[in-house]
Design a protein that fits this description.
single chain; binds zinc ion
Amino acid sequence: MKIQYLGTAAAEGVPALFCECDNCKKARKLGGKNIRSRSQAIVDNTLLIDFPADTYMHFIAHDIALYAIKSCIITHSHQDHLYVDDIRMRANGNFAHVTDTEHPLTFYADRAGYEKIKDKTDTMSKKDADAVLITPYESFEAEGYKITPLRASHAPKTSPVLYLIEKDGKTLFYSHDTGKYNDETMNYLENLERPLSLVSFDCTSVCNDNIFSSHLNFAECVEYKKIFLEKGIADEKTIFVINHFSHNGKHVNHNELKDIAASEGFLSSYDGMEVDF
Ligand SMILES: [Zn+2]
Ligand SMILES: [Zn+2]
Ligand SMILES: [Zn+2]
């Protein structure tokens, strides 16, 4: 399996849209991997995770054949993960000319995201875009993956879920956005058939004290790594990644964060990073 990170920032981006803070000034000056756009990833160039406004620049920057994507799983309805207005751009013959007219782009989301998406797809042809309602802890299939949404500890009105994505004996745990895991999710993880292959942790506060109950910081990611290993949720082969960073976070710039992350056995994500596992 392969994950490619397309966007690795929290809602405001790094540099943040209207910000003059030192982290943002530094990111603008350094450029490259220090520029972080809004949250999105793609698995095996096939399964899209989230649909932020920055989807547009991601498809250009990383040469993604977006017209060929058939499935997009949505973590929650915050706008840095779901920008519904661009769904209209999939309307074939009008905003787009799509050769494969048999396979719509189907969005999978829990209630809040589903309602927002459906509001758009209801006015479109089912051949262009569609919405499927998912339920936490109930697995479904898309693109040959077994996908299980787990309830996240995040703004409840956004119906937030984390995703376990399984194929060919590998399991990816895409854990964004969330604070400390609730008991039901922790219990689900403890009863997995096999250790996780790759864990992508929420690290919004980076190296600051965590000021958000609905996100994690690096110290908490380190603690969860320890817990996952102790409980057999992960093993020595598991790849640990930190992702979804706020410009407020100390050491948010990739040049600084990569070594700090590596010292605790983590990869620090950057826009465009690919991990094969
Ligand atoms: Zn977010
Ligand atoms: Zn800033
Ligand atoms: Zn969020």
